[in-house]
Structure formats: C-alpha cells, structure tokens
Amino acid sequence: MPKPRNAKASRPEKHLVVWDLDNTLTDTVKTWALSTSRAMARTASLYDMDPATVQRSFRKTPSQFRFYDFTGALQWMASQKILPQGANPVEETQLKATQWAIRDRWMKEQKEFTTFYPEAVETLRGVRDNGAQQVIYSDTEATSLILRLWFLAQNAQKSGQIADFMEIPALFDHFYCQPSIESDNRLLSQIDPAFVQAIKRNMTLWGPHPVTGKRLAKPSPRHLKQILNDFSCAPNRAVMVGDSDKDGATARPLKVAFAWHKRGCVMEHQTAEAATKMSDPGYVFGVRAIEKAMKRQDVRPNITLSRSLTTLFTVFNFKTGHGFSHNIEQTGTGSGHTPENPEYVQLTPIPPVHRLAPYFQFQGLRSPLGPATHQPLKLPTP
Q: What is the rounded average pLDDT of the residues 337-359?
C-alpha cells in the first residue's frame, strides 16, 4: 500500500513574496474615499463653492496630492485659480489657514482609519519566520508609501499587534514605488526619522519611460522582472499578492504565481461610488469590475484569498532565497505589452532604477525623495 503523500511537501516552494500595498494589506479605498469626500465637502462649504466644481477640479489634481496630501491638492487648486484668491495679505493668510484646517482634519481621519487587514501582520511575520524574502511593490509615490506605512505601524502598535513600530519596516526586504513629485520634508517631518530612514535605505524608485518620459505603472512585467533580478529569484519561486487585475497582468507574462486578494475588492456601494468620482477614469473598483478586467486580460489567479491572507500558508511553502543584491538589468529583450496597455511595447532595456543612498548627496545630485533623513547627512570620505 503506498504511503500517504506529505501535503506540505507537495506545495510549491516560494522564496519571494511581492506584496501590493493598497487594498491588499490595508483597506485604502474606503479610508481615502471617506476622508476625502468629507474634505471636499468642507472645502466647498468653507470657500462657498459649488460642490460639483470642487469635485471636477479635485479629479485633475496630481495623484500624490489627490490620494495622500490634501494640502497639496488645495495648493494646486489655488495655483490654478480654482479656489478664491485673497484681495490682500490678510485675506491670503486667512485662506491659507483654511487650507491647513481642512488638511489637519483630513490627516487625522487618514491616520485613524488606516489599519492592517486582519491577519496581515500575522501573515507577514509567518513569511519572514519561514525565511522567505518579501517586498512591497506599489504604484504610489514614495512619500505617500512611507506615510501610509507609518499610520499602519502606529495603529498596529496601539492595538497591540506589534510592540514596536520599527517592526513594520523590518518585515520587508525592499520597497519599490514611484518617485514623489515634490520634497518630502513637509509630509514626513512629524514621523520618527529612524522609521523614515529604515524604509528609504531599502527603497527603489522607478525611472520614467525612456522615450516619453512619462511614469511607468502597473501592469509592468518589466518592473517585476527587475524585482526578480534583484533577488536572484526564478519566476516559479515567487508569488505576487494583489487586489487588482493590474497585479495579475504584471505577474502573468513572467508566469509568476498570482494570489488575488478578493477581500480587498469588496466594498460598499457608497464607497465605490465616491471613489469612482474622485479617481482617474482608468481605475475600476469592486469585485465584479475587477473580475471583468481580469477576464479581458486573461488573468487567472493561482489562488483566491477570500477570507484571510493566512490562506497563503495552505498553498505554498515559504523558504529562504538568495536575498537582495540589486543587480540592475541593462540588456534583454521582450515586451511588457498587454492588449489593454499597448504603450508598454518595447521597453528594452528597462530604465535604471534610482536607489536612495548618501551618494545622491555626495555627487551633488538631488535625491528623488528628498534628504535621506531629517538630520544632516554624514558624507563618506572620498
């Protein structure tokens, strides 16, 4: 009689977990839609403006401001002459004070509502305890990513999920995101410098399209290929965890396993409606919309996480990989093309990525994310 097969031994072995952040580890859409809808209502009321005008104008605001910096959004709207202008210095001061009052309320709500999904911290610890590497790969700007992780860390410490907020950056081996569009000093000045530095020293910022100069975003198999290259990880030894069709479309061409966090797509009708009105036209929200988008792009999740992120441990064995080495790919062929994204054709070679390190300052270059810490840098001796 044959011996029963060891179920754990038969599971695919994974050395690297590539995590999306928003709506995968935290319910970003609900937090953002709720706090931002309220902030726009306050803006319309305090400035005596038509709410529809505020909404249309807000939708044109650069994404970093729209999603993570309501003060920046208001300042941009003021620069475009959308908000009322002061007739004299006193009125200008009053209008700016109004901006900060709206922003402070918005920021407090963001901080209050930004929490990890249940079992998220437990899952991240489990992956790390098994020796596998894990990274965050997000289309959000660097400053926004740090701010959101800070809120998550503070609330996790407050709820007793972690003992020290520094555990959160320590759970990840690297962070991949977009460069910020302005200096980060204002937004990050109230965050513990050690927390900021712990993330910045392990951060890669994606370069722009080599031809158009525009930002490259998901779905981007070329980005994922760079991540695999950084960790010397074969595609069959990695798993990408995300909530959207864009995450799946990024993983599919490289045959990287895709774990769809379906729970991250579930939202109330009111939340989805508010998010649709404030986001870019290309974004889709809700389970049905994401399922349709995945079908159009032939994205078939290897596993669907409907209830808990810990389900990953019933499907994969996580083991130690090679670790981060940051080998920048300079040659190669192929395309990030998908039927829905023809602009990603012929992105060869991948643009060099930017690392945050003191050499940016040493060479006299402006760091893509601002200063590496909030303290003066000690430059290396030539």
A: 36
R_g over Cα of the chain: 22
- 174: part of which helix (H) or strand (E)? strand 174-178
Separation of alpha carbons 256 and 251, rounded Å: 5
The pLDDT of residue 8: 64
Three-state secondary structure string covering 254-301: HCCEEEECHHHHCCCHHHHHHHHHHCCCCCCCCHHHHHHHHHHCCCCC
In the chain the first and final C-alpha atoms are separated, in Å, by 71
Interatomic CA distance for residues 166 and 351, integer angstroms: 32
Higher-scoring residue by pLDDT: 333, 9:
9
Please enumerate in sequence order all residues whose Cβ is within 8 A of that of 117, keeping only pairs 6 or more positions apart, or say none.
25, 26, 27, 263, 264, 309
Spatial neighbors of 90 by CB under 8 A, at least 6 apart, are: none
Place of tokens 């200063």: 371
Assessment of whether the complete model's pTM goes beyond 0.90: no
Q: Residue 303 forms beta bridges with which residues?
A: 259
Contact between residue 262 and residue 307 where contact means Cβ atoms under 8 Å apart: no
Residue 329's alpha-carbon distances to 36, 225, 353, 364, in angstroms, are 39, 9, 9, 25
Phi, psi (deg, nearest 5) at residue 173: -85, -25
10 Å Cβ neighbour count for 362?
12
Secondary structure letter of residue 88 according to DSSP: S
The pLDDT > 70 percentage for the chain reads: 80
Closest CA to 142 of 113, 185, 108: 185
253-272 mean pLDDT: 87
pLDDT digits (tens, 9 = 90+) for 283-318: 777 888 899 999 999 999 999 999 899 999 999 999
Q: Which residues have C-beta within 8 Å of that of residue 85, sequence separation ≥ 6?
A: 78, 92, 95
pLDDT band at 182 (very low <50, low <70, confident <90, very high): low
Cβ–Cβ < 8 Å for 32, 73: no
